[in-house]
Sequence to fold (328 residues):
Amino acid sequence: MTKVSILNLIPKFKDESQMDAVGRAVSLAQFADDHDFSRYWIAEHHNSPAVLGAATDLMIGHILNNTKRITVGAGGVMLPNHTPFQVVERYATLNILHPGRVDIGIGRAPGTDMQTAKLIYRNIYRKEDFKNAIKEMQMYMSDEAWELDVAPFPGAGSKIPLTILGSSETSAHIAAELGLPYSFAGHFAPNTIGYALGIYRNEFKPSKYLDKPYVMLGTSVNITKTKEEAEVLKKHAENISLQFIRKERKEFMKLDPDNEPELTSMEKFILRTSKGLTIEGDIDEAAKTWKHIKEEYKPDELIGASYIPETDVLIDNYKYFEDIVLNG
Fold:
């Protein structure tokens, strides 16, 4: 059976407070905790008033404090912004407070614009640098870390699970070579899903962490009960995508039928041709989409992201998502 999980960027919408956004994230996590979701990931992003994942580990700690069972982690830690030593110290501390409930997704992108990236810490975008940083983290969390002259001691022997995040063939090669689970951002890069997953599965080397390939696939999720409600969510999702295309540095806008943005011909083309992997529509349409994804890519786990401002609609969306994936 395919596992089902949630990816949350903790979006903030116009005319709501930051605590409103955090409260919605907690409510969603508590719903997931009471259901059969496997994990709840928070994404790292910087220099954006529209998302609240800048201090990812602090937000993860808050979610852990407000849930009981579910694994909570980073989807992911953008390693160019941190040292492996610091990451292990902080996440191992979370693991002490919430034993066995913490995991770490590791990404190579900066999670922001390049100007901000230069201010945060360092640049390790080369494949070998990134791979070596992951190995360094593994060493710090191993039993052998106790023998090091300098070690992040909360992490020594912690063996916190790592997953490689990516949206390109480079990340697939790295995950396969290191024998680690691979999470592909299908909601960002739908055109290379099959190619990247093929590389990962074909090149996978069994390791002490994992004996066979494990694929997590990211998708956008916008599911409602009726076709009429589905059209509203589709339009809302399109407007969110438009803000990304325009690189608008402001909070996300809620859908306003009386104040719809005017699209240029180029924007219409981009929205039509660059849409990420998405499960949307009413329950029947969404179920058909999932059936196709399952047959085409055979993921071990599906992780869904949504930008829905109304908490009840958001939770209903994930109820349908859970049911479709676990019972489809």
Summary: The mean pLDDT is 93. The longest strand covers residues 215-224. Strands lie at 3-8, 39-42, 71-78, 102-107, 162-166, 182-184, 215-224, 278-282, 301-305. The radius of gyration is 19 Å.
